[in-house]
C-alpha cells in the first residue's frame, strides 16, 4: 500500500518563488531504518532539483520523508548564497530549527547547497548546532557523513568536482502534481559575472551525458508528466564531447544545446519542453530555429539583461554590450514572432550612474519584457566585483532605482497581458487556482499563467483557452475546446 505523505516545505525560493505545499508518494516498505528526513530548499530551481537527488540518495539508505519537522530524525536545509538576504533567511530558519532540536536531542541538522559551499567549515563554528555541511557536488557522501554524525562526529564535505552530474541518480520527485518536472542538464558555471557567487559555490561548468537526460525525460513522459524544464546556469553553453573527452577544451562537440533540445522535443509532441537560463552572449540562431520548428518547445526565453548600459555590462563582466543584446532580441522576435521574453535585472551595481540606470529603463521599453526578476545589488564576498569595485551606490538609491524598474515592469507586464485579450492559447492544466477552487490554473507556451473555470476538464489535459480579462500577473478566460493533442 502506498502512503501519501503531505510534504510541506517552507521553501522561500529567494525572491523568486514563494512556498507551495509539496506532496510525495513513498512506498512505506521503502522506509527500512525507521528514520525520517525533512528537507527545505531555498534559491534557484537547481537547488530544488538537487533536493530531489538528495531525496533519492537518502531513500536508498532507507530514510522516509516527512513533512512534519517535529517527527524528523534529520533536518536538511538546501541553501542559497546569491544575495545577502538569501543567507539571512537561512540563518534565521536555522535558529528556529535549533530550538526544535533542543526538544529532540537525537535530531541531526544538515546544511546543503551554496551556503554550505561558500562558508565550508566556518558554518560549524558559527552555527554550533549544525551537524553536517555538504556542498552541491558532495551529496553522494551524505550516507557516510550521517553515520559519523550519529556517532557524534560533525562532518564537512564541500569538495567541488569537474565531473559530478549525478547522471545515474534517478531523482525522487518532490512536486505533487506529476505533470511538470525539472531536469538538470549541466552543473556549475564558467562565466565570471563579477557580481555573482555561483561560480564559487557550484564550481566549473560540466554537461551531463545526453543519454541519461533523454532517458530521464522519456521515463517522466511514460509516468504521465507533460512538461519538462531543462536546467542550467547557461544552457546555451551545453556541450557534450563524449565521456572521455568532456574536459578537453579542443575536443569536438558531439551534441550542442540546440541538438539536445531537438532530441527531447522528439520524444513525443505531447511532452512540452522549456529551459532556463539562456545567456545573451551564447544563445544561437540555431537554438531559435529549433524552438520555432517544434510546437512542443515553448516559446519563452528567459534572457537576463542585468543592465541596459554597455559600460555597466562591462564592469559586470557579462561579455556582451547593449547593441549585442538588442540584436539577439531582434533575432528572437523575427525567428519566433510570438515569443515570451523575460529578464533578470540588477539595480545599483558598483559605479552605476543615473544615466546608466536610465539605459536599463530604456532597454526594458525596447524589449517589452513580459516579466522580470528584479534585484538591487548585494555584494558577495570573494566575487570579482567585491575585489575590484567599490559598492558605492547608497542602499536608498539602489532601492529607489529598483522601485522604478519594478514599476516600469508592472506597466509592461500589464500591457503585454492586455494585448492577449481575445486571443486563444493552448494551456496545459497544472493545478487548482490558488484564489478559487472552482478554477484551474495552467500556462501557455509563453509561460503566462491562465486561470479558467474547471468544468469537466482534468489536470494534465491540454485545452484551448480564450482570454477574456487580464491583469499584470495573469490572464483569465474560458475553455473553447479540448486541444487535439488529448485525442
Ligand atoms: N545563470 C543565470 C542567473 C543565476 S542567478 C544568468 O546568468 O542569468 C539569478 C539572478 O540573480 C541573476 O540573473 C542576477 O540578476 C541576480 N543576482 C546574482 N548575483 C547578484 C547579486 N550579487 N546581487 C543582486 N542580484 C544578483
Ligand atoms: Fe552567475 Fe553569470 Fe554564471 Fe549566471 S552566468 S550563474 S550570473 S556567473
Ligand atoms: Fe542560489 Fe546557488 Fe542557485 S547561490 S541561486 S541556490 S546556484
Quick tags:
32% helix, disordered N terminus, Rossmann fold, binds S-adenosyl-L-homocysteine, OB fold (Dihydrolipoamide Acetyltransferase, E2P), 6-stranded parallel sheet, binds FE3-S4 cluster, binds iron/sulfur cluster, 487 residues, 23 strands, 5-stranded mixed beta barrel, single chain
Structure description:
The protein has 487 residues and is an alpha/beta fold. Among the domains are: 11-157, 3-Layer(aba) Sandwich (Rossmann fold); 177-298, Transcription Regulator spoIIAA (2-Layer Sandwich), CATH 3.30.750; 424-482, OB fold (Dihydrolipoamide Acetyltransferase, E2P) (Beta Barrel), CATH 2.40.50.140. The chain is 32% helix and 24% strand. It has 14 helices and 23 strands. The strands form 7 sheets. The protein has a 6-stranded parallel beta sheet, with helices on both faces. The protein has a 5-stranded mixed barrel with strand order 19-20-21-23-22. The protein has a 3-stranded parallel beta sheet with strand order 9-12-15, with helices on both faces. β22 and β23 (475-482) form a beta hairpin. The two termini are 32 Å apart. Mean pLDDT is 91; it is low at 1-30.
Provide a concise account of the structure shown.
By secondary structure, the chain is an alpha/beta fold. Helices cover about 30% and strands about 25% of the residues.
Distance between the termini: 32 Å
Supply the CATH class of the domain at 11-157: Alpha Beta
Cofactors, ions and other ligands in the entry: S-adenosyl-L-homocysteine, iron/sulfur cluster, FE3-S4 cluster
Strand percentage lies at 15-25%
Characterize the biggest β-sheet: 6 strands, parallel
- Summing up helix and strand content along with how strands pair, one would put the structural category as alpha/beta
Number of strands: 23
Low-confidence parts, pLDDT < 50 over ≥5 residues?
Answer: 1-30
* CATH-derived architecture of the domain at 11-157: 3-Layer(aba) Sandwich
Overall pLDDT metric: 91
* Helix percentage range: 25-40%
| Helical run tally | 14
Cross-sheet strand order for the largest sheet: 4-3-5-6-7-8
Please tell me what the overall shape is.
globular
Output the radius of gyration.
23 Å
CATH topology heading of the domain at 11-157: Rossmann fold
The CATH homology group name of the domain at 11-157: Methylthiotransferase, N-terminal domain
